[in-house]
TrEMBL record:
Protein name: Transporter
Keywords carried by this UniProt record: Membrane, Transmembrane, Transmembrane helix
Membrane-spanning residues: 6-24, 31-53, 59-83, 104-122, 128-152, 185-208, 237-259, 271-291, 303-326, 364-380, 392-410, 416-435, 447-464
Amino acid sequence: MGAELFWLHGVYVLFVLIIIAAMVMKRDTSLLCMIGIAVLGLTATGSVTTAVGGLFGSFIYAITELLPTILVISIIVAMSQVLSETGINETMIKPVSSLIRTPALAFWVIGLVMMAISWFFWPSPAVALVGAVLLPAAIRVGLPAIGVAVAMNLFGHGIALSGDFIIQGAPTLTAKAAGLPVADVISASVPLVIVMGVVTTVAAFWYLRKDMKNGLVAEPLKKIEDSDSSKKSASTLLAAGLRGWIAAAVILLFLLDVYAMFMLQLKGGDATALVGGTALFILLAVTLIAHKQAGLEKVTNHLIHGFQFGFKVFGPVIPIAAFFYMGDSGFVKVFGETLPAGSQGIVNDLGVALAHTIPLSKEVAALALTAIGVITGLDGSGFSGITLAGSLAQLFATALGTGAATLTALGQISAIWVGGGTIIPWALIPAAAICRVDPFELARRNLYPVVIGLLVTTLVAMFLI
C-alpha cells in the first residue's frame, strides 16, 4: 500500500477541497494556494523559516516548469501584433471571405478559420483578426453578429484551445501536473476534442438556425463600415504586393513546422521550441522590413507587449500550479526528502489508499474529472484549473490502475471549454466586443451546446479509459 497516510496528506486534501469550494463561489484561489504551500511545508518540516522559504521556492519551481509555455505564447502574441499593424494578418485571411456566400457557409468558414489561426496564434489575437475581416462579410449574407461570435468562441476558445496541439501550452500544464509525457495527453485528447467539437458546434448551429427561422435571433448589425476594419488593420508600412508575399511566407513557414513535427517526431518541448523559434524569426524579419532603421527599437516594443500579455494570462496560474506541483515531484524539489518513508508522492499515496478503500469505477472517475474541470473553469480562466485536473486525474488513475492520459485530457477539455471563453460572460468579452453583441447573450447561447458536448464527451471517455 506504500507509505501510510499521515497529516501531510490530510493537509493536501483539505486545501484541495478548500480551493474547489472557492472556485465554485467564484473567488480567487491564489492566496489559498500560497497558504496551502506554507502549511504543507510547516507540516512536513516543522520549521517556519523552511515553510516560508519553501513558498518562494515553490514559485521558482512553478515558473521554471511553466516558462517555456509562457515564453512561446508571449512571442506568438508579439509576432501577431507586428503582423496586425503591418496589415499582413488581414492579407492572410481576406481571400477566405470570398467563400462566405450563405449564413451556413459563414458560420462554418469563420469557425474553421478561427480554429486554424488559434492553433498557431492562440485565440486571443485571432478574435480581433477574424472579427475585423470576416464579420462584415458574414453579416452581408445574413448571418447575425451573434452567430459570428458563437462560431469564433466555440472553434477558437473551445476546440483549438482545449486541444492546443501546436503550441501545446494546455497539455504541457496538465501533463506535468499528472506526471505524464505531453505526447500521451495530446494523443488521448484527440478523440475527445473531436467528439466535443463536433457535438458542440453542430448543436450550436442547429439552435442558431432554428432561432433564425423563428425570428428569435437579435437583428444583425444594420451597417458595419468596411472602413472601420480597414482603419484598424490597413497599414502604409508595407506595399500591398510585399504584404502578399510575406503573408504567403508566414503561412508556408508554419506549415513547414507542422510537417517537421510529423516527419521528425517532434513532441512536447521540441515542438514548442520549433513554433516559438519560427514566430520569433517572423517577428524579427517583419519588424525590420517594415520599420527599417527603427526596427531595433520596435522589436523590443513588440516583445514587451508579448511578455505583458503572457504574464497577465499566467500570473494567476503560477500560485495554483505551484500548489498542485507539491502533490508530485515538486515537493521534494522544494522541501527536500521530508516525505514519509516509502512515499511515492502525496497524490500517488492518496491514489493507492483510494484504491484500497473506495470502489472507484471508470464511470465515476470520468464524471468526477468533468465536474472538476467545470468547477475550475468557473473563474473564467481556462488555464487556472487544469493543473488541479491533472493532479486529480493522476490520483484517480492510480486508484483505477489505468486511464491516466484519458482522464487528464478530459479534465483539461472540460476546464478550458467552460473557462476558456465559451460560457463564462466575463471570459468572452473580447469576442462579444468585436461582434458588438451582449456577452451574457453570447454565454447563454453557448450554454446548451457546451453542456450537451460535455455529457457526450464524458460518455465517450468512459469507454476509452
